Amino acid sequence: MGPRIGPASEGQQVPDKETKATMGTENAPGDKASPDPQDVQPSVFHSIKLFVLCHSVLQLAQLMISGYLKSSISTVEKRFGLSSQTSGLLASFNEVGNTALIVFVSYFGSRVHRPRFIGCGAILVSLAGLLMTLPHFISEPYRYDNTSPENTPQDFEASLCLPTASAPAPAPSNGNCSSSTEAQHLGLVGIMFVAQTLLGVGGVPIQPFGISYIDDFAHNSNSPLYLGILFAVTMMGPGLAFGLGSLMLRLYVDINRMPEGGISLTIKDPRWVGAWWLGFLIAAGTVALAAIPYFFFPKEMPKEKDELQFRRKVLAVTDSPARKGKDSPTEQRPGESTKKQEGPVQIAPNLTVIQFIKVFPKVLLQTLRHPTFLLVVLSQVCLSSMAAGMGTFLPKFLERQFFITASYANLLIGCLSFPSIIVGIVVGGALVKRLHLGPVGCSVLCLLGMLLCLFFSLPLFFIGCPSHQIAGITHQPGAQPGLELFPGCMEACSCQSDGFNPVCDPSTRVEYITPCHAGCSSRVVQDALDKSQVFYTNCSCVAGDNPVLAGSCDSTCSHLVVPFLLLVSLGSALACLTHTPSFLLILRGVKKEDKALAVGIQFMLLRILAWMPSPVIHGSAIDTTCVHWALSCGHRAVCRYYNNDLLRNRFIGLQFFYKTGSMICFALVLAVLRQQTKEARTKESRSSPGLEQQLLVSEPGKKSEDSRV
Fold it and tell me: Of 296, 311, 326, which one is at a domain's C-terminal end?
């Protein structure tokens, strides 16, 4: 609980004017005398410390629910038959609603009741999370083998090679399709798109209003510490999302409506679909609980009067002589802040919405005329595009490239990648502070970070697993002849053209998409101590008539996923070194009165140019590497097999392209800053002929002071 404001906590101190105003505005109507100050106890919600705590929890939960879809993207694709391009578009729709409304946040500013707006936005985020789970409850149960009858275990005697005379005629892939079925599928996908849009809309007021509220009512010395705590806690949100995804995807998708005979799938089966919807329920409930306190915070609270005690003690030991002359003017006099700043930031609150919309394009073009600002934003667009694509499809890439489960991929990412990102951001900020880097130094640090990131990205092209040899689909050098899709050995079988129940021949490591395609006519279950093993025998298409194992072939290089992800994490940490120095380059690249607007334009451009299109671009690149598609109503649905070499080269190559673009932009920033510094020195030496020699003498001692950010 934060300190109470007023006589109860200040002893003999008299409440300031803001405290009296806050206490008096909520009393009985009319001109009744205010109660005795000793009888008035300020609410616990008048503490900025409590607001920082609540806002840290809320932003943590909000990022957890917005990042959870990325942890289960491959599961959602399998469950609803989506391509990677469509799932990437679904993930990017989170930014559509956010981008459409984020500009108006700068217009409303402090005119509205910010805590209540934050609470309403959080409630909308929670409702959007619940809406994401609706397709699970209104759709049919998941059928992982569409050739099996409904009242028996789903792959018992399913997909076997049965004589054509005794087997039912194979239904075409679109035999169960109708206009209503297609409409239902489109409706389910449409619900998820609407939910993602509402998720972005609800998140609009949370961060901007929360940061401005803390900055307005926290003590001037405490505000940076509060914001640092807020960002540190918030950064754990995506990591928790992947951890939650790792737990939920170990549960079967229809855990609330299991078939009577149970299921014979294991988590390693390629047909396994985890309980993706359960994570949305948990995250939505967390956001709803975190939203409750915001409806009790006041529109304005008394400004925090005391510096944090531990901070005061530390600063008293380190730089007490320097602070003696700085503590007295910390409290601004009435009207002082309005006299200091002029420009668009102060003009905007006086404009109507129509006037604000009209003047915004002019201000945008004026801001983009700054070469440093433009180049740094372009470099951040490249980095954000890399991060958006990696964050959305890295779990799926690890699943397909190294043949691991979705749960294990999420666990690795949550434990390795996100902590390295946090370390990179913290180390970048510490280097800027420790070395007292100016604009030129910041650009050098950014360029060095991206060069090292590119260097450690090169081995990723060569770390991966080869594609499995799939009978009738892949043709590798040295493969057995006659592995067409329908060879003569299975002419007597009536195989479903779109069935999927993969089996593996352990002797040749050839995989068949169903036991029927391997010509198998019987099924044997061997019970062991820990698990049962399923075999298919009497296989006419298998060399030596050997039995085949149920499931995909095991990979011999799955252990490479850990060194691969370690290199990815190291590259991410090096790229995140540029976070703080590039942000400072933006602040130093524009005029003082344009800083707030420049930051708003920066985030708007990052959303439009990076976070929205990048998942779609990465998804489209992944789709081009597919070698076998599942069909749904005659249309391509989810991809079942990829060419792993193409997948690795195109996915990592796209990441490498964005990293190279960012490095080039930072190199241009360094060239521009050096040219500007050279021109400034030349102009100064011409205006003061005798000053050039003095500059050469005093340069070593003055350089660090002039370049300090």
Answer: 311
Checking if the pLDDT of 244 tops 70, the result is yes
Between these two residues, 533 and 374, which has the higher pLDDT value?
374
Tell me, yes or no, whether 456 and 419 share the same domain.
yes
Within 8 A by CB and 6+ apart from 561, the residues are 398, 401, 402, 404, 409, 412
Res 555 pLDDT > 60: yes
Distance CA 63, CA 66 (A): 5
Give the pTM: 0.80
In a domain, 14, yes or no: no
Q: Which residues does 132 contact at the CB level (< 8 Å), separation at least 6?
A: 69, 192, 195, 196, 199, 277, 280
Q: Do 110 and 229 reside in the same domain of the chain?
A: yes
Domain match, 187 and 260 both: yes
Q: How would you classify the pairing of strands 510-512 and 469-470?
A: parallel
Within-domain flag for 281: yes
Question: For residues 344 and 364, what is the distance between their CA atoms, to the nearest angstrom?
Answer: 11
Q: Two tokens at 87?
A: 């799932």
Buried b (16+ CB within 10 A) or exposed e, 60-74: bbbbbbbbbbbbbbb
Domain of 379?
A: 364-464+557-684
Which regions of 276-433 does DSSP assign to beta strands (E)?
none
Answer whether residue 156 is part of any domain: no
**Count of domains for the chain:** 3
In angstroms, the CA 209 to CA 658 distance is 32
Residue 101, amino acid: L
* 8-29 tens-digit pLDDT: 334 444 444 444 444 444 444 4
- Compute and round to an integer the Cα radius of gyration of the chain: 31
Percent of the chain with pLDDT over 90: 35
The phi and psi torsions of 150 (rounded to 5 degrees) equal -75, -30
The CATH code of the domain that includes 459 is 1.20.1250.20
Do 669 and 618 sit in the same domain of this protein?
Answer: yes
> Cα–Cα distance between 577 and 424 in angstroms, integer?
5
Phi/psi of residue 590, nearest 5 degrees:
-125, 170
Q: Are 630 and 81 in contact (CB under 8 A)?
A: yes
Which of 518, 533, 551 terminates a domain? The answer is: 551
pLDDT over 60 at 31, yes or no: no
What was the pLDDT predicted at 3? 41
For residues 137 and 258, membership in a common domain is answered with yes
- Taking the alpha carbons of 609, 611, 616, 619 in that order, is the dihedral positive or negative? positive
Asked if residue 561 and residue 426 are part of one domain, the reply reads yes
If asked whether residues 513 and 450 sit together in one domain, one would say no
Q: 522-527 and 510-512: which strand pairing?
A: unpaired
**Ramachandran angles phi, psi of 63, nearest 5°:** -70, -25
Same domain, 382 and 442: yes
pLDDT recorded at residue 630: 87
Q: Is residue 225 part of a domain?
A: yes
DSSP, res 416: I
> CA 16 from chain center: how many Å?
44
The distance in angstroms from the start CA to the end CA of the chain is: 36
